[in-house]
Amino acid sequence: MKILQKTLITLAAGSLLSMGAQAATSYSNGYTGQPYIGAKVGQFDLDIDNADDPTAYGVYGGYNFDSTFGVEAEYVGSDDADYRNGDLDAKTYGAYGTARYQFPNTGLYAKGKLGVAKTEVEGDYTNGLVKVSNSSSDTGIAGGVGLGYSVNPNFGVEAEYSMMDSDVDAKLLTVGAQLKF
After folding, report:
1. Comparing C-alpha atoms, which of 83, 79, 56 is closest to residue 144?
2. Per-10-residue mean pLDDT for the chain, 181 residues long?
3. By three-state DSSP, how is residue 47 classified?
């Protein structure tokens, strides 16, 4: 139930942010650009022993320069996951270049992204009678692959698998929805 509530809240927040959206921006050189915003929910897979995988939730936005190339920025946070006798949470901030392949005669597309991401992980636990706090923050190369479906010209859904290379390697599996302007 907790994941469903967060998913609904995240999708509702994304919908509210998009009110007043306009159609795609056209430029005089013939190219059509399209900004978008979205929300996602999923699961972190952290390279940490004795830690449960936290639920991930995030927001993202980007700009498609044309039907193939674009840029994207995202923030993904987590809830507290069990870690030894305490808890752990994670956050990532990323900026990416994106590439898409539109499958002919369908709304289905494949997406790849490559860029940099900052990963922050904090854990608090007790070791006997002593409270211990650990944290790690590092920036590294990040990338991902995904599949999406454009329901209509202004709304789409995506499933994505991302990897962040840092002190604590993080993998992220998410599903999300996006509104295109």
Report:
1. 56
2. 50 43 43 88 83 89 93 92 78 95 94 94 79 83 96 94 83 94 89
3. coil
SS3 65: coil
Q: Which residues contact 30 (CB under 8 A, 6 or more apart)?
A: none
Buried b / exposed e along 33-53 (16+ C-beta atoms within 10 A): ebbbbbbbbbebbbebeebeb
CB atoms near residue 156 (< 10 Å): 19
Cα-based distances in Å from 19 to 11, 15, 22, 37: 13, 7, 9, 11
Which amino acid is present at 125?
A: Y
Count of beta carbons in the 10 Å neighbourhood of residue 130: 7
pLDDT of res. 178? 96
Q: Could you tell me the fold of the domain covering 2-22+33-180?
A: Porin (2.40.160)
Q: Please state, in angstroms and rounded to a whole number, the distance separating the CA atoms of residues 3 and 14.
A: 17
Tokens of 156: 């789409």
